[in-house]
Amino acid sequence: MIPSRFLPRPPNKLFFHHNVSLTVSVAVGTPLQNVTMVIDIGSELSWLHCTTRNTTTNMVIPDPLFNPTLSSSFTPIPCSSPTCTTRTRDFPIPASCDSNNHCHATLSYVDASSSEGDLAFENFRFGSGYIRGIVFGCMNSSFSSNVKGDSNTTGLLGMNLGSLSLVSQLKLPKFSYCISGYDFSSVLVLGESNISWVGPFNYTSLVQEQDRLPYFDRVAYTVQLKGIKVGNNLLNISDTVLVQTMWSGQTMFDLGTQFTFLLDPAYSALREEFINQTNSTLRVLDDPNFVFQMAIDLCYLIPTNQSLKLLQNLPSVSLVFDGAEFIVRDEQLLYKVSGLRRGNDSVYCFTFGNSDLLGVEAFIIGHHQKQNMLVEFDLVEYKVGWAKKETQPHRSWFSGTTAVVEVGEAESTAAYFFFL
Ligand SMILES: *[C@@H]1O[C@H](CO)[C@@H](O)[C@H](O)[C@H]1NC(C)=O
Ligand SMILES: *[C@@H]1O[C@H](CO)[C@@H](O)[C@H](O)[C@H]1NC(C)=O
Ligand SMILES: *[C@@H]1O[C@H](CO)[C@@H](O)[C@H](O)[C@H]1NC(C)=O
Ligand SMILES: *[C@@H]1O[C@H](CO)[C@@H](O)[C@H](O)[C@H]1NC(C)=O
Ligand SMILES: *[C@@H]1O[C@H](CO)[C@@H](O)[C@H](O)[C@H]1NC(C)=O
Ligand SMILES: *[C@@H]1O[C@H](CO)[C@@H](O)[C@H](O)[C@H]1NC(C)=O
Ligand SMILES: *[C@@H]1O[C@H](CO)[C@@H](O)[C@H](O)[C@H]1NC(C)=O
Ligand SMILES: *[C@@H]1O[C@H](CO)[C@@H](O)[C@H](O)[C@H]1NC(C)=O
Ligand SMILES: *[C@@H]1O[C@H](CO)[C@@H](O)[C@H](O)[C@H]1NC(C)=O
Ligand SMILES: *[C@@H]1O[C@H](CO)[C@@H](O)[C@H](O)[C@H]1NC(C)=O
Ligand SMILES: *[C@@H]1O[C@H](CO)[C@@H](O)[C@H](O)[C@H]1NC(C)=O
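That is the input. Now the predicted structure with 2-acetamido-2-deoxy-beta-D-glucopyranose docked in place:
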């Protein structure tokens, strides 16, 4: 069978649900304009929807917008600039020249939507930090994907390893985030975290590509998966499934994907073992027509009045990496499908799915499993770590030298923005 193509980024970016994206409030330009941006560790170029006029009607296209014509610090980047010729080297679609000799970028996504715009320098204020001359894309057309559906979102903050990502532009030695599983607040820390409210970290090395492989995303946060355990049982999954080959096998940490997706041989082994170990306590929803979010095919019927007790007695699922285990337990294993009832039962779905159903030839560790953990990316020692949140950060943590920017819309997960 011909593998479904794992396209280079950004086409494999997946925004399942705009209301599970992590957003931050940022101020841009001179004078400052307030914008809301989705944080995405799988993308490189940060971009904003810019005001444009329809060339036929001369009408302003309405949307949440950044208006570059009102900013004195907005500086378009010419095609001849080294920023355009060399720093765009990691873009999946090469930068080109528009009719004004401005550096032109095209972004395209897995749902066939795309956006075009010009690169420019602009000043950004993140919390209390004001940074001049950040390269971003001033996009002139809208996405048809879910990013656009989030009516309060003006753009996206690209945080992957590419040469023009925010992480690279700010030369960050580290960044970390914690997504709350209980409310909509989250924390994004740029720089050293030094956080006292988490337990010890488990670290695994980030993997660099050895050979030039056509379907390997070189600028993603890639780790090496070694195995999967259910309870104490290590599943029988061949190494040939877990290592990167010509066509598949990359394991990526992602923030734009809600759940975790595994290549079919690994997913099938996990599904079978999890069903086996839970068959005396949980009832599988036996309905071949029900596939949650088009990609999750294992769901359960749980009496509404018993959900808590059942969830707390599930076997854990561990992702075993080089040097570290990532353990998923309790509510992080089953996700309650909001508003869906079958008789007196609620429907809960397994938070691991089959990559094949997504058409992605890779392992993707999504953000649901990372709730209530601090996930840290160390770009000096080139490793990723995770630690459990042990206590609620004291309110004083959100004040002092660090600045709380703003909590976004209640429907989105909003992040506090810190420079430490
Ligand atoms: C956001 O997600 C919740 C469930 O998590 C759902 O009930 C709600 O309808 C969603 N909102 C939108 C605008 O999709
Ligand atoms: C931008 O946000 C800040 C802080 O939330 C607020 O004080 C300011 O009035 C806002 N500016 C505009 C133009 O909305
Ligand atoms: C501009 O307006 C024309 C006429 O209303 C319309 O057909 C066209 O799609 C519009 N273009 C854009 C980019 O919105
Ligand atoms: C704006 O978008 C249209 C099509 O989406 C494209 O043809 C045009 O070149 C773009 N203009 C700029 C300045 O990016
Ligand atoms: C880290 O936090 C501890 C206690 O909160 C403090 O004493 C120490 O100075 C901090 N270190 C850095 C590098 O900020
Ligand atoms: C693991 O799977 C392989 C191939 O599917 C099989 O040959 C082998 O016997 C299995 N090992 C165990 C311990 O079940
Ligand atoms: C289910 O578990 C039992 C005992 O734990 C084991 O004998 C059996 O082989 C398992 N079945 C599958 C399909 O893994
Ligand atoms: C349930 O699991 C037990 C062992 O854990 C196994 O013996 C039994 O066959 C399983 N039943 C079903 C219906 O899979
Ligand atoms: C849950 O409700 C069912 C009836 O729907 C009842 O028989 C059962 O005792 C209840 N269980 C608990 C733990 O309340
Ligand atoms: C739901 O629970 C109620 C009361 O516990 C019971 O009377 C009813 O028969 C149950 N309905 C189904 C479909 O099981
Ligand atoms: C770190 O790994 C150890 C065992 O390898 C495990 O017991 C512990 O729960 C892990 N911690 C986290 C936060 O995943």
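Residues 202-388 form a domain with the Cathepsin D, subunit A; domain 1 fold (CATH 2.40.70.10).
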